[in-house]
Amino acid sequence: MTIQFNDETFRDDFTFRNSEWAIKRFPFPFHEDSYMYSVNMEQHRGGPAGSVFEKRFDVDEHYISEMRDRALVLADDPLRCQSLPHMTLAGWDLLELIMVSKSEDYPDLFELHRNGNQWRWINKPLGIDDSFTFMDEASLPYGPMEYITRQAQGDYAVLDQRENNLWMDAGMVTTQADWSLDFDIGMNFFEWHAPVPLAHEMGVFKRALKFLLNIQQGSPARRLNWTMTVNPLLDTSPENYHKWGAQKTTLTPENIGRKQHLRVELQTFYRLPRSNALVFPIRCYLIALEDLVTVPKWGRRLHRVIRDLPEELATYKGFIRNRPMILDYLAQYDDGKPTSPGIWPDLDTEPPLER
Amino acid sequence: MSKFDFPPSITSRPVYGTLEARKGTQHLMIADGAGAEALLDLANAAPELMAQAHVIFIPRDAGALEEKLRAAGPSILHVGPSYPATVQRIRRVLQDTVMGAQVYLAGTEGLIGQAMNEALQAGIPLAAIQTEHRGSVARRMQCVHCKGITEDVMTDPFVCSHCGLNLFVRDHYSRRLAAFQGVCIDAEDPGEVPEPVELYK
Asked: Between chain A and chain B, how many beta carbons pairs sit less than 8 Å apart?
C-alpha cells in the first residue's frame, strides 16, 4: 500500500493524529489483563501483514513529521546525538542495516544503489538523493549514525559489547521516555538501568543482558515497553522536563480522552556485522485514549492494567498523579467482560462494549 | 570521624574501599580534605611505601594535614588550591606512569570520581586504582537541564549554581561525568519546592 504521510506536530499545537489504519495496527503492549516487568523477548522475524512488526524498520504515516520534529530537537540540543570515538564503525554498520532494510522492505519509497564503495541513497519521502563513499565520513553531511537516524523513526542506542557487558557508547535519542543519553553515555547495562525500580531485585536485567549478549547476526529480537504521556509529545526528555512537566497538570475529565496518550516502545535488537556492536532501536508509538477505546478489547484491558499496576511502577512511569482521572475515564469502557488472550484487537470476535 | 558508611544504593553508585599498600613500580596518591587521613593510615601501615610516593593533596578545609603528610616523607608532595587548578598537573603526572603503577585516591566523591576518570583515560587499569572515601559526603551534581555541574551539594533539593532551577538529587551516577543527576523538582507544580533536607539524614 502507499502511505499517506501526515503533516502534523508533536509540540505546541499538537496536531498529531492517528488514522483508522494507524489505530488498528497500534502495537498494544498487554497480552493479558495485568502487567509486570518481564524480559518478554521474541524473535523479530516479521509479523502479520500490515502490523508494525512486519518490516524490519516500520515506516508509517508519521514518518515525515517525526523526522521534522527530530531536526528541531537536534537544533535545540545537539547533545541528543553522540558517538564515542570508537563507535564510528558501528555507525557505518547501522547505516548499512537501515539502508538495505528500507530499500528492500519499501522499494517504492527508498532505493539503494551500490557499486563497490560508491553508494547512492534515495529517500523519496524526505526528498533526499545522496551519493557517497561507504566508510568515508567526509562524503556525508553528518557522521554515519546521525545521517541515517535523521531519516529513521525511533531512537537508536548503539551498544558496544566487551567484558561480558553492553556499553551505551553512541546514540540518537530525541523521543525518549525520560532518560538522558548525555548522562548515560559510556555506562554499562546495569548502570544505565540503575534508576528502574523493582526490576533489579527480580533479576530481570541479568536475564535480559544474558539474552542480548547472545544475539547473533541475522537473528534480531524485539519486545514492547510502555508508559503514559500527556499530549502527543515525542520529546519527553529529562533535559526539557522543566518545560513539559507542567503539561501533566492540564488534564481534565473533559479533555483526557484526547490529551492522555498511551506511549508504546517497539524495542528491537540487531547484531552489527563489522563492529560486533548491538543496535537497539526504540520506536515510539502514541495513541490517544479516545482512539484506543474504539477497540473494545483494548479499552477493557487497559483499564484493568492501569487499575492493578503497583504504585512504584505508576510513579516511575510518571503518571501516578493522573492515575485516578485516567481510571475514571477508562472505567466507562470496561464492562467486565472477559478478554481474549494476546495483543491483537480481535475486532471481529470480541464483543462490543455493553453500556 | 571522617569515615562514612553509605547506605545501600543503586547499581551505578561507586563503592569505596580502604586503601592498602600494594607492590608497584610507581605510587601516585591523590587526596582532598580528610582524604589525607587515609594516606596517613596507609603510611603508618607501610612506611616504606611513602619514599616512592608522589602525593597530590588538595587541602580544602583540612590544611592542618599538610604538615603531617610531609612528615610521612613522600618522594614528592604537591599541594594544590583546588581540583580544577590541579587537574592539568594530574594529567601530566599520569602521562609519566609506567606499567605496574598504582594509583590511590582518597577524599570526597567528587575528587575520587574525577581523578578516577583521568586515571582511566590515561590507561591505568581499573584494578590498579584504589579508592577510599573520607570527609564530606557532599555530592557533585550535574543539572540534566543546563548540564552545569554544582559541586559540594549537601541538601536535597538544591539550587543549580548555573541555571537556578530547583533540583532534586536523583540516585543515578555517571562515571564519565563523575556526578549524580539533578532533575527539576517543581516542573509539575512551579514554586512548590519542599524544604531542603541534609543528604543521608
From this structure: 67
